[in-house]
From TrEMBL:
Residues that coordinate or bind substrate: R20, Q39, R44
GO BP terms: carbohydrate metabolic process
GO CC annotations on file: cytoplasm
Cross-referenced InterPro entries: Aldose_1/G6P_1-epimerase, G6P_1-epimerase, Gal_mutarotase_sf_dom, GH-type_carb-bd
GO molecular function, one term: glucose-6-phosphate 1-epimerase activity
EC number: 5.1.3.15
UniProt-recorded name of the protein: glucose-6-phosphate 1-epimerase
Active-site residues, record numbering mapped to chain: H110, E214
Length: 244
């Protein structure tokens, strides 16, 4: 059996600390793209309740009444439905505006994909993609390479990407396909050496075995929902072995 998602050996399982690995949920803000003073919102720091549970599917809920976050006083209900089927891990987000005024949010499924060796891993599907470079004050650039490889820190918000992005892991002889719906954008992140060393909940060498591909509502602009309106976004992670 192989692990397909990465969880750091130094991850801290003590709320409100976000877990360094798996799929933290950035909501109601991705990065600093919103009114909150700390990045990635607060959904990843709080406990959800389990509302439905079957062996292959779980439905989680976060009912927010607008009171605990001064910078985000707007109520919402967030449902996350996670299911496993064959070689697929499906995650669905449903946001309901339960407040009396429009709800505006950005979001991401901050998916930590495990790779065998970042030096040989490639990301396919973003060629000619426009991105905001987090390492250059969000300056906009275009990816010229057919496939994105890694030889240093990468932190990019790709805008309006295709809905299928693949992580090719030749050393592990596998391909992980990320298929998204509802999320226009995608983040690609690897902290590399210096940033890895600066994170207390991440091993110094672990940047070699992970890569984040994050379906997002981010640089293309936020979503605004009228009172009572609902938004849905989905991610389907599929695993295939490959000889490449
Ligand atoms: C990514 C961001 O989504 O998350 C990066 O683009 C950030 O800038 C990374 O460093 C990790 O964020 P955090 O808050 O979990 O350390």
């Amino acid at each position: 059996m192989q692990e397909l998602l990465f969880v750091s050996e130094k991850a801290i399982f003590a709320p409100p600390k976000a877990i360094r690995g798996g799929v933290p949920l950035c909501f109601p803000q991705f990065g600093m793209m919103g009114p909150m003073p700390s990045q990635h919102g607060f959904a990843r720091n709080v406990a959800f309740s389990v509302v439905e549970q079957e062996p292959w599917r779980v439905k989680l809920a976060l009912e927010y009444d607008g009171s605990s976050q001064p910078a985000f006083p707007h109520p919402f209900t967030l449902h996350v439905i996670i299911s496993i089927c064959d070689n697929h891990l499906l995650q669905e987000l449903v946001v309901l505006n339960t407040g009396p005024s429009p709800l505006t949010f950005t979001a991401a499924l901050h998916t930590y994909i495990r790779v065998t060796d970042i030096h040989t891993a490639k990301v396919r599907g973003l060629s000619q993609g426009r991105y905001l470079d987090n390492l250059a004050a969000l300056q906009q650039s275009t990816q010229e390479e057919e496939e994105l490889g890694f030889s240093g820190e990468v932190d990019r918000v790709y805008l309006s990407t295709p809905n299928t992005i693949q992580v090719i892991d030749p050393s592990g002889k596998r391909v992980v396909t990320v298929s998204k719906e509802g999320f226009p954008d995608a983040i690609v992140w690897n902290p590399w050496i210096a940033k890895a060393a600066s994170m207390a909940d991440f091993g110094d060498e672990e940047y070699k075995v992970m890569l984040c591909i994050e379906p997002a509502v981010a640089g293309s602009g936020p979503v605004t929902l009228e009172p009572g309106a609902e938004w849905q976004g989905k991610q389907d992670l599929a695993y295939q072995s490959s000889s490449a």
